[in-house]
Structures are given as C-alpha cells and as structure tokens.
Amino acid sequence: MRTHLQEELEMPENLPFTVSSFYGFISEKRLMAAKCNECGTVLLPPKPMCTHCLSTNLKWIELDGAGKLISYTVIHVAPTVSVSGTLHCWHRRIKERSSAARNDLWRGPRKNQGGNEPKNRF
Amino acid sequence: MVKKPLVSIVSAGSSQFGRLDGMYGRELFADAAKEAFDRCPNLDPIKDIEALFVGHMGESYEHQGHTGPTLADWTGLLPKPAVRLESACASSGVALRTGIFAILSGMHKVVMVGGVEKMTHRSTADVTEFLAMASDMPFEQWNGLTFPGLYALMATAHMHEYGTTEEQMAQVAVKNHHNGTLNPKAHMQKEITLEKAMESKVIAWPLKLYDCSLITDGASCLILTHPDLAKKFTDTPVHVIGSGQASDAIGLYEREKLTSLKAARLAGQEAYRMAGVEPKDLDVAEVHDCFTIAEIIAYEDLGFCGAGKGGNLIEAGTTELGGKLPVNPSGGLKSKGHPVGATGTAQAYEIYLQLTEQAEKRQVERAEIGLSHNVGGSGATACVHIYRRN
Fold this sequence. Notes:
The complex is a heterodimer.
Chain A: H1 4-10, H2 19-27, E1 31-36, E2 42-43, E3 58-63, E4 68-74, E5 87-93, E6 106-109
Antiparallel strand pairs in A: 1-2, 1-3, 4-5, 5-6
Chain B: E1 7-14, H1 25-39, H2 45-48, E2 51-55, H3 67-74, E3 82-85, H4 91-104, E4 110-117, H5 124-132, H6 147-162, H7 166-181, H8 194-199, E5 202-204, E6 207-208, E7 218-225, H9 230-233, E8 238-247, H10 262-275, E9 284-286, H11 292-301, H12 310-315, H13 332-335, H14 343-355, E10 369-376, E11 381-389
Parallel strand pairs in B: 2-3, 2-4, 9-10
Antiparallel strand pairs in B: 1-7, 1-8, 4-7, 5-6, 8-11, 10-11
Helix pairs in contact in B: 1-3, 4-14, 7-11
C-alpha cells in the first residue's frame, strides 16, 4: 500500500526545481516557474536556489502564458541537429501577481509553432 | 594625472587569417609566436617567458582539448606552465586579463597570452552548431536558435525600439570590408557595396550573409611584462591601462533588454575608470563585430554615442578610417575574420600595431589611446581593455 508520503512526493508540485521538471510540466502544457517563499522572486526557468536572496525555500507557480512579444527572427541556416525555418518568439510577462518590483517582469522562451517539440532528454 | 599601467605589451604576433588548409591550430599559433619573438630581439623567449595563457573555444573543431601545453610545446616554451581559457568568443580577451593577473600578482615577470581556432575544415552547419554551444543548451539550442538567430533577435529589437535600419547595419559591413583591404593579414580583402550587402542571402532575418563575421582560421599572441621591466625589452612598449570584465545570463531570455549588452557596459565602465580616460579620449578602437548589429550596439555600450544612436554614428562616418574615432581598422571580425579563440588578442594585436605606428596603410594618425572590446557568446561574457602608447 502506498503511503501518504509517497503520494506527496509524486505530486507534480513536489518535483525538484530543475530543467527536467520544467519540461515535464511543458509536456503537460503547463508553464510552471519557481517562486521564492522568502523574497518573492519568480525564477523562469526554475533554479534550485533563489538567485536573488539565495534561499532554497521555493514553490511552483503556474503562469497563464500571457505576454508581450519583444522580438522575433526566422532562421534560414540551421545547425546540423536542429530544425530549420523555426519561428522564435520571446515574450515578456507584464503582470505577475507578486508585489515585488523585481518580479513583475520575466521572459521565457515561448514554445515554437510545431516541430522540434522538446522532449525530456535529461 | 597619468596612472601607472597595469602591464606593458613588449611584442605581439598574428598568423595569417583565412582559410588555411592543411594546417593545425598549433601551427598557426607557432606562426603568431614566431612573429612576436622576431619583433623583440631583446627577448629570449625560452629563458624569459615564464607562463602561457591561451584562449581556445572549442575541442570540437579539431577534436583537441588540453590546448595549453600543446601550444607551449609548439612554441618552445616547455616546461613552463600553460593554461587554456574558455569564454566562448572572448576566450583570448580573458587570457589577456589572466596574463595581467599573473604579472600583477608578482608570480611572473614575463608571460605570453594568445588564442587560436582552426575552423574552416569543418562544414558551415557543423561550425554553426559548435558555436551554438556557447549559447544556452536547454532553452536556446534546443529550440533551434543559432548565433545569427540570437543576434537577429537583438537586431529586430533594436530596429523596433530605435528605428535602426538594415542599411545602417550594411554600412558597418561596407566600412569593415574596406578596412580589410588595407590589412594584408585579413581573411577577406575585398570591397563590398551597400547594394551587394543588402541583396545577400538571408541567414536569420534581418541578418544577411554580409551582416555575419567570417568562419576563419587564425592565431594571435602578445608578450606582457611588468611596466618597470618593459624598457629592458623594447623602446616602444604599449601599456595596458584599464581592464574590465563582467558576466550576464547566458540566455537572452533572462537579459534586462535585448538592445544592449549589460556585461559590455559594465566591463567598459570598469576599464574606463581604471584607465582614467573617457570615450572622447580614444583615438582608435577594435570592437566585437561578430554581426553588424553587434558593432552598432558596441558603439552605444562603450559610450561612443548615446543609446539608440549607433546607427546614426555609422551613417555619419565617424567610425571610418579618417573619421573622428576609427573603429575596426583591422577589418574587424567581419573581414579580418573571427577565429573565435584568437579574436581577443588579435584585437589587442591591432591596437598594438596602431599605437606603435606599424599599421601601415590603415594607420590612424597620432593614435595614443586605444580600446578593445571582446564579447563571449551573445554577451554572457564581455572583456574591455584600454591601451596607451609609451
């Protein structure tokens, strides 16, 4: 019989604050970031430690994906292992629910349109 | 007040830059070292040089790591300590800075610093991929981003925010190609027209073929000593009077903005402060024009003009040879070429030639103070040095 503790550990929100966890969430179409419980900094991508106050007291938060396109390009010459002609969008979140000024902006790579879907390769 | 220099450059050397078939990187480095040795007859390299610091970006090109002792061997410097430094395209800028630390610590009296990369024997696709290793793996490379792609994102943002045009970027290419025709060691010694640059193949929109620097083989080196010892070796040393370096997030997605490299601004400020000079005091500069937009952003980050005014500066001709502040008289990465590990000390080599009046057809008249600006990757490393003639 599974213990309560085992179930807790398997909850997605208890996953470690790693790139693998991030892409695990992405494969479920969830955009998740780490938020520092001490200073409120939002880390996207997540890092094991808050790079603002160095605390490891973090929690997962789900972002709604709303953002502002700040640049784009179309790549015509691709490296050997990558896809060609991929559209890249960078977006900036303009409203984050935290009160700390530092937190009201983050940027993250928006998933490209089709093809090259990231797999959890770590 | 004239500040005491950090170190003095008593000699410098560079291999030919270009497509050098049949050569290994270590042989190119030996060519660069030989020029530096021959230029300084009072130096006994085997006896005087106490350590070697070399920039080398990638093992992938030649399937060769452990570059430090290899290059010490090919330049007759065994058994002196030899270290490879890797900071992507800023590898040898950082090697120069490490050489400065070695002299200032008092541990060594004379050191050689330099860099090398052998690239042209690999396909463009392979080189693009090896270079991409200097960008963020899980979030940039995975999504198919290349270096032209990263700088294209900066260019798009710069165009949107400041109205910078594709023509202004192309003007950087035209200027640097012209300068390259005056440099016998440049990879591509040929003029291009604005039309030719504008009509060239798109690599990563808005960047076209002539917005991109060259895949090149080459090596470069400098010989450094304590300023008090410089006169023992030469009557015409060039002094390094300021050195700055800073780091930023490896991925563009974590940068403050896309239109400026914060690490370059901070490195520049540190170097200016240390040297006690301002941008208006400069006579000549070599900046990291890996892409034409990078030169425009460098003008702004280094205070040659205000933010967003880089496009106007190139248009006004200020940075041409004969202008108020010639930038990249060597031809820059754009036409001299960009063997990534060699670039930082190749920039210093050009400034050394300029400040000792050995730059021949591209000599900037009465150049007394020079600057070099070396960027690693898309700006996660930046290294700025300021130099003064004796």
